Amino acid sequence: MADETENCAFCKIVAGTAPAYRIHEDELSLAILDINPFAKGHVLVISKRHTQWWHELNADETASLFKTANLVANKMMKAFSPEFVLMFARGRRIPHTHIFLVPTFRGDLLDRFFNALEKIQESPQDLARLKDAAAMEQAAQQLRSA
Question: What is the value of pTM for the model shown?
Fold first, then answer.
């Protein structure tokens, strides 16, 4: 794990050994501008502890991550007046928990992408079967009992 954190760009930012445009932080989370933004003001909210996936965080870290995301999203709404702030969690390309917060406007790249994704979600028969009441109850039961 030490080697993972030594080579992790986000761990270096948390440690203060790599530069970043810091927006907000608390003891468990840090919000920084993304250096490859989808839009002006695109922010990454990262956990200060190195873990790849957000669902591996403990309860306090999760609360901090989403509290920070909420605070920064509200700052984005004031600063840029977008239609909404897109949020999604990642950990694939950089294997360190991070939430994308992107000010999004009607018709911009991400709005078009998610509109297209929603059309895909509504269309295929394989996905349509997931809406069946029995399939929904089965999925709900699996989640409740996990």
Answer: 0.80
